[in-house]
Amino acid sequence: MAPGIPAAMERPHFIGIGGAGMSGIAKILAQRGAKVAGSDAKESPTADALRALGATVHIGHAAGHLADDATSVVVSSAIRADNPELVRAGELSIPVVHRSDALASLMGGLRSIAVAGTHGKTTTTSMLAVALSELDLDPSYAIGGDLAGPGTNATHGEGDIFVAEADESDRSFQKYDPDVAIVLNVELDHHANYASMDEIYESFETFAGKIVPEGTLVVSADQSGAVELARRVREALPALTVVTYGESGTADVRVHKITPRGLTSEVTVILGGKFLTFTVSVPGRHYALNAVAALAAGIALGIPAHNLASALGKYTGVKRRLQLKGEAAGVQVIDSYAHHPTEMTADLEAMRGAATDARLLVVFQPHLFSRTQELGTEMGQALALADASVVLDIYPAREDPVPGVTSALIIDAATAAGADVTAVHDKERVPEVVAGMATPGDLVLTMGAGDVTDLGPRILDHLSS
User: Fold this and answer.
1) Domain 110-312 classified CATH 3.40.1190.10?
2) What CA–CA distance (Å, rounded) separates 34 from 38?
3) 321-464: CATH topology
4) CA–CA separation, 136 vs 395, rounded Å?
5) pLDDT digit of tens for each residue in the chain (465 aa)?
6) Catalytic positions, please?
7) What DSSP letter does each residue of 123-177 carry, written as one string?
8) CATH of 7-99 among 3.40.50.12160, 3.10.20.740, 3.40.50.300, 3.40.50.720
9) E strand or H helix at 283
């Protein structure tokens, strides 16, 4: 089926069109036939991909980039009020639409799965997109990262299913009305928008309350925050079907065993008293559980469990989620998007399990001053899982500096936990520093949500020279 284009999305202008969330929506609209335009701070492969779909992409932000006949201006929470294109939209009385509202409009009329949680959203959404595509269901999807196979974060499919990553950071996931919602975990994060766990729970409860009548909430039976959310939802929304998954004996979709097999895992679950075993082509318990969440959600949508389990084995990863960037001088360089302590610990444990006797070296770039202020100690403690770490200055993204908040908070905590840590303030020096530390057989992990990802190829170049 081919849903129509909402009137406001016929000629949209995206500010920050190259971003992971924004570009996905722009791609789907372009594929549906909308006249898409937008701007971004710099050239990128994403900008080129959008142009290939017929979109107009300007580099830099200027009032003149906004066409007078634009039907809307699409923004994310990262766009500041003084952006010249946003100011111009006000002068022209062009409606301003938040990214989440634009995405919600694309999901209308389709059976939808919305994937939420503090960690693991991109991976789980990607697993579903790949598995449903493998089953010839031709889904539409919008993901916060590029699939390793198709190499894209979004597509318009002709099927009747839409899979979307649902972002809790600014409460925008409350805009969706999914048939099935997944909540992988519930932890305190995004400290600029949430002051307490109670606020987090209230936000996730609102999200669960938007699930359509006779819909399903799939939620972890292992993670304490998710367990508490399930309790609250059952109490507040008794008519909603809640399906739990995980290693807990109380789980509806129970994980019987996770068997590491190098850089893959074999997962056995118990469904209706029967055992079902399938392969997950990425290492670590964390990713195995994401696959089980995807399995539970697909079953809730009516897809046969055995078919879906087999199709999940075709998932080969997402860029920046333990992505192998290459090998030089006997050293493998792997890229990780992990930036919250729980994510860091999960990826480091996964790599430790896959590495056997190899040394694990980490290049970590903290992301956001607010997150470092609240969780810097836990980040440092996570780095103690590595044999040695290089810690960069904080990547600010959308935030202004906070007095007294630097990467030293992480370094001090890591040192106190017994970690071997080196501070490098000049990012340009990192390839040379890492090449001097690494020896054949080592694994190097670039880690963080900022531009630390750019260092992988450069580290490989230094190792080769």
Assistant:
1) yes
2) 13
3) Protein-Tyrosine Phosphatase; Chain A (3.90.190)
4) 41
5) 456 788 999 999 999 999 888 999 999 999 999 999 999 999 988 899 999 999 999 999 999 999 999 999 999 988 999 999 999 999 999 999 999 999 999 999 999 999 999 888 988 999 999 999 999 999 999 987 666 544 578 999 999 999 999 988 888 899 999 999 999 999 877 667 787 889 999 999 999 999 999 999 999 999 999 999 999 999 999 999 999 999 999 999 999 999 987 778 899 999 989 999 999 988 788 889 999 999 999 999 999 999 999 999 888 766 666 788 899 999 999 999 899 898 899 889 888 877 677 899 999 999 999 999 999 999 999 999 999 999 999 999 878 999 999 999 999 999 999 999 999 999 999 999 999 999 999 999 999 989 999 999 999 999 998
6) 121-122, 165
7) HHHHHHHHHHHHTT---EEE-SS-BTTT--SEE--SSSEEEEE---TTSGGGG--
8) 3.40.50.720
9) none
